[in-house]
Design goal:
globular, binds magnesium ion, Helix Hairpins, binds adenosine-5'-triphosphate, Heat Shock Protein 90, alpha+beta, 5-stranded mixed beta sheet
Length: 243
């Protein structure tokens, strides 16, 4: 017989909301000392910068390495906070199309410079949804960045579609990149799973957590050579309700 008291204690200890608050708080606390270290490294570098002495040159190189590592740590914390802080979303009536359009406009120039077309097909009949626009922007941005990275420098197309379907709203992000093999597709939502050099592997887990915090769901269709389709499904607000 399983021991009820100890299993409920274990369940309590692993309450994901508490864990995410603790971890998020820790990551947040680490940011200030980290930026102080970065600032002091800048000051140190200034002191050595014009000194021709070989020892000074070596010090400057070491400081540059340290600065790079501080930058990397900062990125890790940033990604982690985005993942952990899904308990802090604030839903309001917002226009999904506007969020999608803004992300498309934001990434289009850089994508165009690499031969990637970013197209939007946005439904004209979407009512305002219950969204946290800033956090939902992160969802769309993560998906578009993944699409962009998958296409790489070969050129291609990223398509963003919104559509009303029954009592729900669909957002689809399609790319004509290389697609995912079965193993990647099966693991891509796992925390820290990444096939990219320098990838944190928190992009899709963050997308899923944020979408679920909006009452929605995410699924991916992908196969090698056929590109990738990410489908986010969101609930419509209750009929007639401005709840
Ligand atoms: N559009 C896509 N096409 C092909 N593979 C993809 C696509 N999106 C995600 N993947 C695969 O899923 C993995 C996990 O994606 P995820 O966004 O979680 O992490 P990442 O992109 O590797 O790192 P990060 O988003 O933190 O920079 C990627 O490394 C990649 O292998
Ligand atoms: Mg990613």
């Amino acid at each position: 017989m399983p021991d009820r008291s100890s299993s409920s204690a274990a369940a309590e200890a692993l309450d994901p909301r508490i864990l995410s608050r603790l971890a998020g708080g820790l990551a947040h606390e680490l940011k200030n000392p980290l930026s102080t270290i970065g600032l002091h490294l800048d000051l140190l570098r200034e002191q050595w910068a014009d000194d021709p002495d070989p020892k000074a040159r070596r010090s400057v190189r070491m400081i540059d390495t340290l600065k790079q590592e501080v930058g990397r740590l900062d990125e890790i914390l940033q990604d982690f906070l985005l993942y952990a802080r899904t308990d802090q979303i604030e839903l309001e009536e917002a226009d999904l199309n506007a969020v999608v359009q803004r992300v498309a406009d934001f990434v289009r120039p850089e994508a165009a410079a690499r031969g990637i077309r970013v197209e939007t097909f946005l439904a004209g009949d979407l009512p305002p949804l219950r969204l946290d626009p800033a956090r939902f922007r992160q969802v769309v941005l993560n998906l578009v960045i993944n699409a962009r990275q998958a296409i790489g420098d070969r050129g291609g197309r990223i398509t963003l579609i919104t559509r009303r379907q029954g009592g729900r709203v669909l957002l689809e992000v399609l790319d004509d990149g290389p697609g995912m093999d079965e193993e990647t597709l099966a693991s891509c939502f796992e925390v820290y799973f990444s096939r990219k050099k320098g990838g944190s592997g928190l992009g899709l887990p963050t997308v899923r957590r944020l979408v679920e915090a909006h009452g929605g769901s995410v699924e991916i269709q992908s196969s090698p050579g056929h590109g990738t389709r990410v489908r986010v499904t969101l609930p419509l607000p209750p009929a007639g309700g401005r709840s």
